Amino acid sequence: MHLITLLKFFLNMDDLYKEIILDRYKNPHNLGTISGGIKVEEVNALCGDKIKIWLEVKNGIITDAKFEGSGCAISVAATDILMDMIKGKKVADVQQMSGAEIESQIGIELSSVRKRCAYIGLEAIKKIKDSLNNL
Amino acid sequence: MKNNFPIFQNNPDLVYLDSAATSLKPAPVILSEMEYYIKYSANIHRGLYQMSQIASDQYDQSRQIIADFINSQSNEIIFTSGTTASINLVAQTWGQQNIKSGDEIIITQMEHHSNLVPWQQLAKTKKAKLKYLPVTSDFLLDQKSLLKLITSKTKIVALAHVSNVLGTINPIKKIVQTIKKINPKTLVLVDGAQSVAHFPVDVVDLGVDFYAFSGHKLYGPTGIGVLYINQKIYSSMSPTSFGGGAIKEVFWHKTILGNPPFCYEPGTPPIAQAIALSQAIKFIQKIGWPKIIQQEQDLTNYLFQKLKTISDLKILGPTKSDQRLGVISFAFTKPKSPTPHDIGDILSQKFNIAVRTGFHCAMPLHQLFGFTTGTTRVSLGIYNTQKDIDKLIDALNHVIKIFS
Fold first, then answer.
1. Do A28 and A80 meet the contact criterion of CB atoms below 8 Å apart?
2. Which of A89, A101, B80, B248 is the most exposed place for a label (fewest CB within 10 A)?
3. How many domains does one find in chain A?
4. DSSP A30-64
Protein backbone atom coordinates (compact mmCIF):
# COMPACT_ATOMS: atom_id res chain seq x y z
CA MET A 1 0.00 0.00 0.00
CA HIS A 2 1.17 3.52 -0.80
CA LEU A 3 2.71 5.25 2.22
CA ILE A 4 0.36 8.24 2.15
CA THR A 5 -2.67 6.00 1.72
CA LEU A 6 -1.37 3.99 4.64
CA LEU A 7 -0.96 7.09 6.78
CA LYS A 8 -4.42 8.29 5.80
CA PHE A 9 -5.77 4.95 6.87
CA PHE A 10 -4.27 5.14 10.33
CA LEU A 11 -5.06 8.79 10.85
CA ASN A 12 -8.46 8.89 9.27
CA MET A 13 -10.22 5.71 8.39
CA ASP A 14 -9.60 3.85 11.60
CA ASP A 15 -10.87 6.93 13.37
CA LEU A 16 -13.88 7.45 11.16
CA TYR A 17 -15.20 3.94 11.53
CA LYS A 18 -13.93 3.44 15.04
CA GLU A 19 -15.83 1.44 17.61
CA ILE A 20 -18.15 4.23 18.77
CA ILE A 21 -19.54 4.79 15.26
CA LEU A 22 -19.99 1.13 14.41
CA ASP A 23 -21.44 0.32 17.82
CA ARG A 24 -23.94 3.16 17.76
CA TYR A 25 -24.87 2.38 14.14
CA LYS A 26 -25.61 -1.26 14.91
CA ASN A 27 -27.14 -0.74 18.35
CA PRO A 28 -28.36 2.82 18.80
CA HIS A 29 -29.29 3.70 22.38
CA ASN A 30 -32.05 6.15 21.54
CA LEU A 31 -34.06 4.43 18.84
CA GLY A 32 -37.82 4.87 19.01
CA THR A 33 -40.64 7.40 19.07
CA ILE A 34 -42.24 9.53 21.79
CA SER A 35 -46.00 9.81 21.61
CA GLY A 36 -47.04 13.42 22.06
CA GLY A 37 -43.47 14.62 21.53
CA ILE A 38 -42.35 17.28 19.09
CA LYS A 39 -41.53 15.56 15.82
CA VAL A 40 -39.06 16.92 13.28
CA GLU A 41 -37.36 15.35 10.30
CA GLU A 42 -34.56 16.02 7.89
CA VAL A 43 -33.24 14.40 4.71
CA ASN A 44 -29.82 14.44 3.14
CA ALA A 45 -30.53 13.99 -0.54
CA LEU A 46 -26.90 13.36 -1.37
CA CYS A 47 -26.76 9.98 0.31
CA GLY A 48 -30.37 9.27 1.17
CA ASP A 49 -30.18 9.75 4.92
CA LYS A 50 -33.64 10.26 6.40
CA ILE A 51 -33.97 10.96 10.12
CA LYS A 52 -37.06 11.57 12.29
CA ILE A 53 -36.58 12.92 15.80
CA TRP A 54 -39.03 13.08 18.70
CA LEU A 55 -38.40 15.39 21.64
CA GLU A 56 -40.21 15.48 24.95
CA VAL A 57 -39.98 19.07 26.18
CA LYS A 58 -41.03 20.34 29.62
CA ASN A 59 -40.61 24.02 30.52
CA GLY A 60 -38.32 24.48 27.54
CA ILE A 61 -36.03 21.64 28.69
CA ILE A 62 -35.59 18.45 26.66
CA THR A 63 -36.51 15.59 28.98
CA ASP A 64 -36.32 12.79 26.43
CA ALA A 65 -35.13 12.40 22.85
CA LYS A 66 -35.56 9.52 20.42
CA PHE A 67 -35.07 9.00 16.73
CA GLU A 68 -35.82 6.70 13.82
CA GLY A 69 -34.52 6.65 10.33
CA SER A 70 -32.42 5.13 7.66
CA GLY A 71 -29.03 6.38 6.72
CA CYS A 72 -25.32 5.80 6.63
CA ALA A 73 -23.36 4.72 9.69
CA ILE A 74 -22.15 8.27 10.37
CA SER A 75 -25.62 9.84 10.26
CA VAL A 76 -27.22 7.19 12.47
CA ALA A 77 -24.39 7.09 15.02
CA ALA A 78 -24.03 10.87 15.19
CA THR A 79 -27.78 11.36 15.66
CA ASP A 80 -27.80 8.73 18.41
CA ILE A 81 -24.93 10.50 20.18
CA LEU A 82 -26.70 13.84 19.71
CA MET A 83 -29.78 12.47 21.49
CA ASP A 84 -27.60 11.78 24.54
CA MET A 85 -26.01 15.21 24.32
CA ILE A 86 -29.25 17.20 24.31
CA LYS A 87 -31.17 15.58 27.13
CA GLY A 88 -31.48 18.06 30.01
CA LYS A 89 -30.68 21.02 27.75
CA LYS A 90 -32.94 23.85 26.62
CA VAL A 91 -34.26 23.52 23.05
CA ALA A 92 -33.12 27.09 22.42
CA ASP A 93 -29.59 26.22 23.54
CA VAL A 94 -29.49 23.06 21.41
CA GLN A 95 -30.52 25.14 18.42
CA GLN A 96 -27.43 27.28 19.00
CA MET A 97 -25.15 24.24 19.05
CA SER A 98 -22.56 23.90 16.31
CA GLY A 99 -21.78 20.77 14.38
CA ALA A 100 -18.25 20.93 15.73
CA GLU A 101 -19.61 20.03 19.17
CA ILE A 102 -20.96 16.76 17.76
CA GLU A 103 -17.64 16.09 16.09
CA SER A 104 -15.73 16.70 19.29
CA GLN A 105 -18.10 14.39 21.14
CA ILE A 106 -17.46 11.62 18.62
CA GLY A 107 -13.79 12.55 18.67
CA ILE A 108 -13.23 12.65 14.94
CA GLU A 109 -12.77 15.26 12.28
CA LEU A 110 -15.06 14.80 9.30
CA SER A 111 -14.71 15.71 5.64
CA SER A 112 -17.14 18.35 4.36
CA VAL A 113 -19.34 15.70 2.73
CA ARG A 114 -19.55 13.61 5.88
CA LYS A 115 -20.27 16.67 8.03
CA ARG A 116 -23.66 16.78 6.33
CA CYS A 117 -24.30 13.23 7.52
CA ALA A 118 -23.19 13.92 11.08
CA TYR A 119 -25.14 17.18 11.40
CA ILE A 120 -28.45 15.85 10.08
CA GLY A 121 -30.00 15.45 13.55
CA LEU A 122 -29.01 18.94 14.58
CA GLU A 123 -30.37 20.36 11.32
CA ALA A 124 -33.71 18.70 12.12
CA ILE A 125 -33.86 20.17 15.63
CA LYS A 126 -33.01 23.62 14.26
CA LYS A 127 -36.30 23.45 12.36
CA ILE A 128 -38.34 23.57 15.59
CA LYS A 129 -40.18 26.85 15.66
CA ASP A 130 -39.69 29.32 18.50
CA SER A 131 -43.33 28.92 19.55
CA LEU A 132 -42.72 25.28 20.44
CA ASN A 133 -39.53 25.86 22.42
CA ASN A 134 -41.23 26.55 25.72
CA LEU A 135 -43.64 23.63 25.80
CA MET B 1 -4.58 2.85 -22.43
CA LYS B 2 -4.03 4.65 -19.12
CA ASN B 3 -0.99 6.36 -20.71
CA ASN B 4 -3.38 8.35 -22.89
CA PHE B 5 -4.99 9.91 -19.82
CA PRO B 6 -2.69 12.43 -18.08
CA ILE B 7 -4.70 12.29 -14.86
CA PHE B 8 -3.05 8.94 -14.10
CA GLN B 9 0.38 10.60 -14.19
CA ASN B 10 -0.74 12.79 -11.31
CA ASN B 11 -2.72 10.03 -9.58
CA PRO B 12 -0.96 6.79 -10.44
CA ASP B 13 -2.92 4.74 -7.90
CA LEU B 14 -6.32 6.12 -8.87
CA VAL B 15 -8.99 3.52 -9.60
CA TYR B 16 -11.59 5.53 -11.46
CA LEU B 17 -14.96 3.76 -11.62
CA ASP B 18 -17.27 6.73 -12.13
CA SER B 19 -17.27 7.24 -15.90
CA ALA B 20 -21.07 7.42 -15.98
CA ALA B 21 -20.77 10.67 -14.00
CA THR B 22 -17.96 12.02 -16.14
CA SER B 23 -15.23 10.35 -18.12
CA LEU B 24 -11.55 11.17 -17.80
CA LYS B 25 -9.99 13.15 -20.63
CA PRO B 26 -7.33 11.87 -23.00
CA ALA B 27 -4.31 14.03 -23.86
CA PRO B 28 -5.45 15.02 -27.40
CA VAL B 29 -8.65 16.51 -25.96
CA ILE B 30 -6.82 18.50 -23.30
CA LEU B 31 -4.17 19.67 -25.77
CA SER B 32 -6.74 20.66 -28.36
CA GLU B 33 -8.59 22.84 -25.87
CA MET B 34 -5.30 24.42 -24.78
CA GLU B 35 -4.24 24.90 -28.38
CA TYR B 36 -7.28 27.06 -29.05
CA TYR B 37 -6.40 29.33 -26.13
CA ILE B 38 -2.70 29.64 -26.94
CA LYS B 39 -2.76 29.69 -30.75
CA TYR B 40 -6.00 31.09 -32.16
CA SER B 41 -8.13 32.33 -29.26
CA ALA B 42 -10.64 34.40 -31.24
CA ASN B 43 -14.39 34.58 -31.53
CA ILE B 44 -16.01 32.80 -34.45
CA HIS B 45 -17.97 33.97 -37.50
CA ARG B 46 -17.18 37.60 -36.72
CA GLY B 47 -13.61 38.66 -37.36
CA LEU B 48 -12.00 38.84 -40.76
CA TYR B 49 -8.55 38.41 -39.24
CA GLN B 50 -6.76 35.12 -39.61
CA MET B 51 -7.13 33.83 -36.05
CA SER B 52 -10.88 34.26 -36.18
CA GLN B 53 -11.04 32.42 -39.47
CA ILE B 54 -9.02 29.50 -38.08
CA ALA B 55 -11.32 29.36 -35.04
CA SER B 56 -14.41 29.50 -37.27
CA ASP B 57 -13.11 26.76 -39.54
CA GLN B 58 -12.19 24.50 -36.62
CA TYR B 59 -15.56 25.10 -34.97
CA ASP B 60 -17.49 24.38 -38.18
CA GLN B 61 -15.44 21.27 -38.88
CA SER B 62 -16.14 20.10 -35.38
CA ARG B 63 -19.89 20.29 -35.94
CA GLN B 64 -19.45 18.20 -39.09
CA ILE B 65 -17.37 15.58 -37.25
CA ILE B 66 -20.02 15.35 -34.53
CA ALA B 67 -22.80 15.15 -37.13
CA ASP B 68 -21.00 12.31 -38.93
CA PHE B 69 -20.42 10.56 -35.61
CA ILE B 70 -24.17 9.95 -35.18
CA ASN B 71 -24.95 9.83 -38.93
CA SER B 72 -26.73 13.18 -39.16
CA GLN B 73 -26.33 16.45 -41.07
CA SER B 74 -24.35 19.33 -39.59
CA ASN B 75 -27.43 21.61 -39.61
CA GLU B 76 -29.14 19.08 -37.35
CA ILE B 77 -26.52 19.51 -34.60
CA ILE B 78 -27.17 22.20 -31.98
CA PHE B 79 -24.43 22.87 -29.47
CA THR B 80 -25.66 23.19 -25.88
CA SER B 81 -23.96 23.01 -22.49
CA GLY B 82 -24.84 19.34 -21.99
CA THR B 83 -27.54 16.67 -22.10
CA THR B 84 -29.62 18.49 -19.48
CA ALA B 85 -29.60 21.73 -21.48
CA SER B 86 -30.41 19.79 -24.66
CA ILE B 87 -33.50 18.16 -23.15
CA ASN B 88 -34.61 21.43 -21.56
CA LEU B 89 -34.21 23.17 -24.91
CA VAL B 90 -36.65 20.72 -26.52
CA ALA B 91 -39.12 21.00 -23.62
CA GLN B 92 -38.93 24.81 -23.61
CA THR B 93 -39.18 25.32 -27.38
CA TRP B 94 -40.91 22.45 -29.18
CA GLY B 95 -42.71 21.37 -26.00
CA GLN B 96 -44.01 24.81 -25.05
CA GLN B 97 -45.07 25.46 -28.65
CA ASN B 98 -46.75 22.12 -29.42
CA ILE B 99 -48.11 20.57 -26.26
CA LYS B 100 -51.64 21.53 -25.31
CA SER B 101 -53.96 20.78 -22.43
CA GLY B 102 -55.01 17.12 -22.53
CA ASP B 103 -52.00 16.00 -24.61
CA GLU B 104 -49.83 13.18 -23.34
CA ILE B 105 -46.12 13.05 -22.63
CA ILE B 106 -44.62 9.63 -21.99
CA ILE B 107 -41.35 9.01 -20.19
CA THR B 108 -40.05 5.87 -18.47
CA GLN B 109 -39.52 4.88 -14.86
CA MET B 110 -35.78 4.60 -15.45
CA GLU B 111 -35.16 8.24 -16.46
CA HIS B 112 -32.47 10.43 -14.96
CA HIS B 113 -34.00 13.49 -13.26
CA SER B 114 -32.80 15.50 -16.28
CA ASN B 115 -35.18 13.63 -18.55
CA LEU B 116 -37.96 13.59 -15.98
CA VAL B 117 -38.30 17.00 -14.34
CA PRO B 118 -38.38 19.09 -17.61
CA TRP B 119 -41.36 16.99 -18.80
CA GLN B 120 -43.03 16.88 -15.40
CA GLN B 121 -42.89 20.68 -15.20
CA LEU B 122 -44.00 21.13 -18.82
CA ALA B 123 -46.96 18.80 -18.23
CA LYS B 124 -47.85 20.82 -15.15
CA THR B 125 -47.83 24.20 -16.92
CA LYS B 126 -49.63 22.88 -20.01
CA LYS B 127 -52.11 20.69 -18.08
CA ALA B 128 -50.88 17.79 -20.16
CA LYS B 129 -50.80 14.21 -18.89
CA LEU B 130 -47.43 12.71 -17.90
CA LYS B 131 -47.43 8.92 -18.21
CA TYR B 132 -44.69 6.50 -17.20
CA LEU B 133 -43.60 3.42 -19.11
CA PRO B 134 -42.90 0.86 -16.35
CA VAL B 135 -39.66 -1.01 -15.72
CA THR B 136 -40.11 -4.78 -15.30
CA SER B 137 -38.79 -6.79 -12.36
CA ASP B 138 -35.86 -7.85 -14.55
CA PHE B 139 -34.95 -4.17 -15.04
CA LEU B 140 -36.03 -3.80 -18.68
CA LEU B 141 -38.60 -1.47 -20.21
CA ASP B 142 -42.03 -3.07 -20.29
CA GLN B 143 -42.60 -3.02 -24.04
CA LYS B 144 -46.06 -4.60 -23.79
CA SER B 145 -47.30 -1.64 -21.76
CA LEU B 146 -46.03 0.67 -24.48
CA LEU B 147 -48.74 -0.63 -26.81
CA LYS B 148 -51.42 0.50 -24.37
CA LEU B 149 -49.74 3.77 -23.37
CA ILE B 150 -49.42 5.35 -26.84
CA THR B 151 -52.61 7.02 -28.01
CA SER B 152 -53.65 9.61 -30.56
CA LYS B 153 -52.94 12.24 -27.88
CA THR B 154 -49.33 11.18 -27.29
CA LYS B 155 -47.15 14.08 -28.47
CA ILE B 156 -43.74 12.89 -27.35
CA VAL B 157 -41.97 9.92 -25.80
CA ALA B 158 -38.71 10.74 -24.03
CA LEU B 159 -36.44 7.93 -22.88
CA ALA B 160 -32.87 7.02 -22.13
CA HIS B 161 -30.80 4.95 -24.53
CA VAL B 162 -28.95 3.47 -21.56
CA SER B 163 -30.03 3.79 -17.92
CA ASN B 164 -27.49 5.59 -15.74
CA VAL B 165 -28.46 3.39 -12.78
CA LEU B 166 -29.44 0.00 -14.19
CA GLY B 167 -27.05 -0.07 -17.13
CA THR B 168 -29.96 -1.38 -19.24
CA ILE B 169 -29.62 -0.76 -22.98
CA ASN B 170 -33.07 0.08 -24.32
CA PRO B 171 -33.96 -1.24 -27.80
CA ILE B 172 -34.58 2.24 -29.21
CA LYS B 173 -35.07 1.24 -32.85
CA LYS B 174 -37.76 -1.30 -31.97
CA ILE B 175 -39.43 1.09 -29.51
CA VAL B 176 -39.49 3.90 -32.11
CA GLN B 177 -41.05 1.52 -34.65
CA THR B 178 -43.74 0.50 -32.16
CA ILE B 179 -44.50 4.11 -31.27
CA LYS B 180 -44.66 5.36 -34.87
CA LYS B 181 -46.82 2.41 -35.90
CA ILE B 182 -49.46 3.35 -33.34
CA ASN B 183 -49.13 7.12 -33.79
CA PRO B 184 -46.84 8.34 -36.59
CA LYS B 185 -47.10 11.91 -35.27
CA THR B 186 -45.60 11.07 -31.88
CA LEU B 187 -42.04 12.36 -31.63
CA VAL B 188 -39.27 10.50 -29.82
CA LEU B 189 -36.48 12.09 -27.81
CA VAL B 190 -33.60 9.93 -26.67
CA ASP B 191 -31.27 10.80 -23.80
CA GLY B 192 -27.96 9.49 -25.07
CA ALA B 193 -25.80 10.65 -22.16
CA GLN B 194 -24.81 7.09 -21.23
CA SER B 195 -24.67 5.54 -24.70
CA VAL B 196 -22.53 7.59 -27.09
CA ALA B 197 -19.20 6.70 -25.44
CA HIS B 198 -19.87 2.97 -25.51
CA PHE B 199 -21.34 1.95 -28.87
CA PRO B 200 -22.05 3.56 -32.26
CA VAL B 201 -25.26 5.56 -32.55
CA ASP B 202 -26.99 6.12 -35.89
CA VAL B 203 -29.90 8.52 -35.48
CA VAL B 204 -31.28 7.74 -38.95
CA ASP B 205 -31.31 4.01 -38.32
CA LEU B 206 -32.87 4.50 -34.88
CA GLY B 207 -35.53 6.75 -36.38
CA VAL B 208 -35.45 9.24 -33.49
CA ASP B 209 -36.50 12.89 -33.72
CA PHE B 210 -34.28 14.29 -30.96
CA TYR B 211 -31.06 12.85 -29.54
CA ALA B 212 -29.24 14.52 -26.65
CA PHE B 213 -25.76 13.88 -25.24
CA SER B 214 -22.90 15.48 -23.31
CA GLY B 215 -19.28 16.01 -24.29
CA HIS B 216 -17.81 15.26 -20.89
CA LYS B 217 -19.14 11.71 -20.71
CA LEU B 218 -17.66 11.07 -24.16
CA TYR B 219 -14.03 11.69 -23.10
CA GLY B 220 -14.55 15.33 -24.12
CA PRO B 221 -14.60 18.60 -22.19
CA THR B 222 -17.21 19.82 -19.74
CA GLY B 223 -19.49 22.68 -20.80
CA ILE B 224 -20.41 21.27 -24.21
CA GLY B 225 -23.37 19.13 -25.18
CA VAL B 226 -25.21 18.21 -28.33
CA LEU B 227 -28.82 18.20 -29.38
CA TYR B 228 -29.65 16.44 -32.63
CA ILE B 229 -32.93 17.56 -34.15
CA ASN B 230 -34.26 15.85 -37.24
CA GLN B 231 -34.45 18.75 -39.69
CA LYS B 232 -38.06 17.89 -40.55
CA ILE B 233 -39.01 19.02 -37.02
CA TYR B 234 -37.53 22.52 -37.39
CA SER B 235 -40.67 23.88 -39.09
CA SER B 236 -42.76 23.12 -36.00
CA MET B 237 -40.57 24.98 -33.52
CA SER B 238 -38.77 28.26 -32.96
CA PRO B 239 -36.14 29.57 -30.53
CA THR B 240 -37.02 31.12 -27.20
CA SER B 241 -33.68 32.66 -26.38
CA PHE B 242 -32.13 35.29 -28.59
CA GLY B 243 -28.93 37.22 -29.18
CA GLY B 244 -25.87 37.68 -31.33
CA GLY B 245 -24.92 35.11 -33.92
CA ALA B 246 -28.45 33.74 -34.07
CA ILE B 247 -30.01 36.39 -36.28
CA LYS B 248 -29.91 37.59 -39.89
CA GLU B 249 -31.25 41.13 -39.59
CA VAL B 250 -32.44 43.25 -36.71
CA PHE B 251 -34.69 46.31 -36.98
CA TRP B 252 -36.05 48.45 -34.18
CA HIS B 253 -39.28 46.47 -33.99
CA LYS B 254 -38.60 43.30 -35.93
CA THR B 255 -35.93 40.59 -36.20
CA ILE B 256 -35.27 38.05 -38.90
CA LEU B 257 -33.80 34.96 -37.27
CA GLY B 258 -30.94 32.96 -38.66
CA ASN B 259 -31.36 29.41 -39.90
CA PRO B 260 -31.16 26.45 -37.58
CA PRO B 261 -28.97 25.33 -35.91
CA PHE B 262 -27.52 28.86 -35.47
CA CYS B 263 -30.79 30.46 -34.33
CA TYR B 264 -30.73 28.09 -31.33
CA GLU B 265 -27.19 29.12 -30.33
CA PRO B 266 -27.32 32.82 -29.42
CA GLY B 267 -24.19 34.33 -27.91
CA THR B 268 -20.60 33.19 -28.10
CA PRO B 269 -20.64 29.39 -28.05
CA PRO B 270 -18.21 27.12 -26.13
CA ILE B 271 -15.67 27.31 -28.97
CA ALA B 272 -12.71 25.55 -27.36
CA GLN B 273 -14.99 22.85 -25.99
CA ALA B 274 -16.70 22.20 -29.32
CA ILE B 275 -13.33 21.85 -31.05
CA ALA B 276 -11.97 19.59 -28.30
CA LEU B 277 -15.11 17.43 -28.46
CA SER B 278 -14.34 16.58 -32.07
CA GLN B 279 -10.89 15.44 -30.88
CA ALA B 280 -12.58 13.14 -28.36
CA ILE B 281 -14.57 11.60 -31.20
CA LYS B 282 -11.40 11.17 -33.26
CA PHE B 283 -9.79 9.52 -30.25
CA ILE B 284 -12.65 7.02 -30.00
CA GLN B 285 -12.58 6.37 -33.72
CA LYS B 286 -8.84 5.74 -33.61
CA ILE B 287 -9.30 3.02 -31.00
CA GLY B 288 -12.31 1.69 -32.92
CA TRP B 289 -15.73 0.52 -31.74
CA PRO B 290 -15.06 -3.23 -31.94
CA LYS B 291 -12.17 -2.92 -29.50
CA ILE B 292 -14.06 -0.58 -27.14
CA ILE B 293 -17.17 -2.76 -27.11
CA GLN B 294 -15.24 -6.00 -26.61
CA GLN B 295 -13.06 -4.62 -23.86
CA GLU B 296 -15.95 -3.07 -21.94
CA GLN B 297 -18.11 -6.17 -22.31
CA ASP B 298 -15.34 -8.47 -21.07
CA LEU B 299 -14.70 -6.22 -18.12
CA THR B 300 -18.42 -5.93 -17.29
CA ASN B 301 -18.69 -9.74 -17.28
CA TYR B 302 -15.62 -9.97 -15.07
CA LEU B 303 -17.05 -7.37 -12.68
CA PHE B 304 -20.33 -9.30 -12.52
CA GLN B 305 -18.61 -12.58 -11.72
CA LYS B 306 -16.58 -10.95 -8.98
CA LEU B 307 -19.52 -9.10 -7.43
CA LYS B 308 -21.45 -12.36 -7.27
CA THR B 309 -18.79 -13.75 -4.91
CA ILE B 310 -19.75 -11.17 -2.29
CA SER B 311 -22.61 -12.36 -0.13
CA ASP B 312 -25.73 -10.29 0.57
CA LEU B 313 -24.95 -7.94 -2.29
CA LYS B 314 -27.92 -7.14 -4.50
CA ILE B 315 -27.44 -5.76 -8.00
CA LEU B 316 -29.94 -3.28 -9.38
CA GLY B 317 -29.96 -4.08 -13.08
CA PRO B 318 -30.18 -6.85 -15.69
CA THR B 319 -27.70 -9.71 -15.55
CA LYS B 320 -27.49 -10.62 -19.24
CA SER B 321 -24.49 -8.96 -20.83
CA ASP B 322 -26.26 -8.25 -24.15
CA GLN B 323 -28.91 -6.21 -22.31
CA ARG B 324 -26.55 -3.96 -20.41
CA LEU B 325 -23.46 -1.76 -20.28
CA GLY B 326 -20.75 -1.47 -17.65
CA VAL B 327 -22.85 0.59 -15.25
CA ILE B 328 -23.54 -1.57 -12.20
CA SER B 329 -25.39 -0.35 -9.11
CA PHE B 330 -25.59 -2.47 -5.99
CA ALA B 331 -26.34 -2.41 -2.27
CA PHE B 332 -26.04 -4.72 0.70
CA THR B 333 -29.36 -6.14 1.73
CA LYS B 334 -28.88 -7.10 5.36
CA PRO B 335 -29.88 -4.54 8.02
CA LYS B 336 -26.96 -2.67 9.61
CA SER B 337 -24.81 -3.31 6.54
CA PRO B 338 -22.56 -0.54 5.27
CA THR B 339 -24.69 1.93 3.30
CA PRO B 340 -23.54 3.27 -0.08
CA HIS B 341 -22.31 6.45 1.56
CA ASP B 342 -20.11 4.51 3.99
CA ILE B 343 -18.81 2.34 1.17
CA GLY B 344 -17.96 5.30 -1.07
CA ASP B 345 -16.13 7.09 1.71
CA ILE B 346 -14.01 4.11 2.74
CA LEU B 347 -13.26 3.20 -0.89
CA SER B 348 -12.05 6.72 -1.55
CA GLN B 349 -10.08 7.40 1.59
CA LYS B 350 -8.44 4.06 2.09
CA PHE B 351 -8.16 2.67 -1.43
CA ASN B 352 -8.23 5.70 -3.78
CA ILE B 353 -11.19 4.16 -5.60
CA ALA B 354 -13.76 6.56 -7.07
CA VAL B 355 -17.34 5.28 -7.22
CA ARG B 356 -20.66 7.07 -7.15
CA THR B 357 -23.02 6.63 -4.21
CA GLY B 358 -26.59 7.68 -3.56
CA PHE B 359 -29.50 7.90 -5.98
CA HIS B 360 -27.56 8.93 -9.12
CA CYS B 361 -30.26 11.47 -9.98
CA ALA B 362 -32.89 8.73 -10.19
CA MET B 363 -34.68 8.82 -6.86
CA PRO B 364 -38.08 7.39 -7.88
CA LEU B 365 -36.38 4.42 -9.58
CA HIS B 366 -34.47 3.53 -6.40
CA GLN B 367 -37.66 3.76 -4.37
CA LEU B 368 -39.50 1.55 -6.88
CA PHE B 369 -37.08 -1.28 -6.17
CA GLY B 370 -36.83 -0.59 -2.42
CA PHE B 371 -33.26 0.74 -2.38
CA THR B 372 -34.14 3.49 0.09
CA THR B 373 -30.60 4.52 1.00
CA GLY B 374 -29.49 4.46 -2.61
CA THR B 375 -26.85 2.29 -4.23
CA THR B 376 -23.15 2.22 -4.92
CA ARG B 377 -22.53 2.57 -8.64
CA VAL B 378 -19.50 1.31 -10.51
CA SER B 379 -19.22 2.51 -14.10
CA LEU B 380 -16.52 1.61 -16.57
CA GLY B 381 -14.55 3.51 -19.17
CA ILE B 382 -11.94 2.50 -21.74
CA TYR B 383 -9.10 3.01 -19.24
CA ASN B 384 -10.37 0.42 -16.76
CA THR B 385 -8.63 -2.92 -16.29
CA GLN B 386 -9.18 -6.20 -14.47
CA LYS B 387 -6.72 -4.96 -11.89
CA ASP B 388 -9.10 -2.06 -11.11
CA ILE B 389 -11.90 -4.56 -10.54
CA ASP B 390 -9.71 -6.74 -8.33
CA LYS B 391 -8.83 -3.71 -6.19
CA LEU B 392 -12.53 -2.84 -5.93
CA ILE B 393 -13.48 -6.33 -4.78
CA ASP B 394 -10.68 -6.39 -2.18
CA ALA B 395 -11.84 -2.98 -0.95
CA LEU B 396 -15.48 -4.09 -0.72
CA ASN B 397 -14.45 -7.13 1.29
CA HIS B 398 -12.51 -4.82 3.58
CA VAL B 399 -15.59 -2.62 4.08
CA ILE B 400 -17.61 -5.69 5.01
CA LYS B 401 -14.93 -6.65 7.52
CA ILE B 402 -15.03 -3.21 9.17
CA PHE B 403 -18.78 -3.52 9.64
CA SER B 404 -18.87 -7.17 10.72
1. yes
2. B248
3. 1
4. SBS--TTSEEEEEEETTTTEEEEEEEEEETTEEEE
Is B342 within 8 Å of A72 when comparing Cβ atoms? yes
Residues of chain B with pLDDT under 70: none
Interface membership of B253 toward A (CB under 8 Å): no
pLDDT digits (tens, 9 = 90+) for B77-118: 999 999 999 999 999 999 999 999 999 999 999 999 999 999
Is the CB of A73 less than 8 angstroms away from the CB of B339?
yes
More confident residue, A133 or B50: B50
Residue B23 in domain: no
Q: Rounded to whole angstroms, how far apart are CA atoms B17 and B14?
A: 9
**A4: closest CA among B401, B398, B5, B352?**
B352
Q: What is the pLDDT of residue A10?
A: 47
| A8 contact residues in B (CB cutoff 8 A) | 349-350
Residues B299 and B345 in one domain: yes
Instruction: Supply the mean pLDDT for chain B.
Output: 96
Digit-coded pLDDT (tens) for A98-128? 989 998 888 877 888 888 889 999 999 998 8
Q: What residue numbers bound the domain in which A90 lies?
A: 3-132
Strand locations in B263-319, DSSP E? 313-316
Q: What is the residue type of B40?
A: Y
Number of CB atoms found within 10 A of residue B37's CB: 10
In this structure, what are the phi and psi dihedrals at residue A46, rounded to the nearest 5 degrees? -60, -45
| Same structural domain, B247 and B320 | no
Q: Which residue of A has its CA nearest to B376?
A: A47
Residues B133-152: tens digit of each pLDDT: 999 999 999 999 999 999 99
Do B368 and B264 belong to one domain? no
CA distance A79 to chain B (A): 15
What pLDDT does B333 receive? 86
Q: Give which of B6, B8, B19, B26 is closest to B380, Cα–Cα.
A: B19
